[in-house]
Amino acid sequence: MEQQKGNGWALLPLGVFLVLFVGSGIITGDFYKLPVLVAIIIAAIVALAMNRKDSLNVKVERFAKGAGHPDIIIMVLIFILAGAFSEVAKGMGAVDSTVNLALSVLPQSLVVAGIFVIGAFISISMGTSMGTIAALGPIAVGISEQAHVSVTLAIAGVIGGAMFGDNLSVVSDTTIAAVRTQKTNMTDKLKVNFFIVLPAAIVTVILLLVMTLGNTSSVEIKDFSWFKILPYIGVLIAAVFGANVLSILTGGIVLAGVIGLADGSYTLSSLAKTVTEGIGGMSELIILSLLIGGMVELIRYNGGIQFLLNLLTRRIQTKKGGEFSIAGLVSLTNLATANNTISIITAGPLAKEISDKYSIDNRKSASLLDLFSCSVQGLIPYGAQMLLAAGFAKVSPIEIIPFTFYPMLTAVCGIIAIVIGFPRLNKKSKSSKEAA
User: Which domain covers residue 208, as residue numbers?
Assistant: First the structure.
């Protein structure tokens, strides 16, 4: 039987991972000094060494269960398809043509802000931050190189736009999970959520504009082919119509491959090789995701997640305190699980109890769950979104974090909304009878 009592020591593997991964980079000044896979393997060994009551075989099976969680496997499939799509599209010239189109339309001072806005639009349409980063990441890297702007700033713009839609899309897993666990209406929740985070989006655009205004370097605008841009246009159209992200990426691979074969960029043999190379480029992320999934399952079973839940709900006395507890609850759970959907599903039932006890509107509690989970997910260096983006940019996730303005500002806006009691809500959706 699983432990019901929280156990702070169960979080030790996560602490070990963070100390090794982040600490070694800070101390040495080189975040590649200790490979992230080595750090997670050591942390996983620590997790397997804990809880001596169970045999190693039992713990390994439990670890495998976590690594094989549906959310983890879907993430791995996205990594596989994203790697293949990115490499195939790049090989047939889609990235170069898209970059040249963007540079011919937008002034250089607007390209990074434009990346954020485009990312927000794509992610709202697709409902997935991972799919957005997979589609837009390579383009952002190409634009940064051509426009002579920081690649970390450009890829951070992609992450910000991706998390904007992840938080506000009607087809996002996080939105659906928040609405369901809080028993409220989808439309009502999105309205509340939108008004809280809108200032964060506006300030992010302003910051990105200010940081690129001084860029006066001249860029040669090269020719582009609309034909070669079709894979990205196809991905965007499919996203607007709400297609599944796996279907979108698969279709993108097929379309890019067909165009590459038609214009002579590929032969069947070279296309197959490019697909393989793209998948291989994601191997580190795939292994990392599986190991994190297994480690998190051991942490959860040993009581680490329950410890966080108990810690945040121990001394609630007021409605405002309840709202801060919901925010802290989902944030800490997200830090431990590195998955915003899982963190909402885990913290959601307790958040509902808190909201009922302290008369917190269900729309507000759902918004807080989604808002803070997406904020944390967009900032943690071991989150799938950050790792995927860093892989495209070929930089350490730690180097990107200082420029991820939108996730930071989202948390700030969420805190301000709690402090000032914003927005003022009527009693419309307090009843669970209106749940979607």
Answer: 61-436
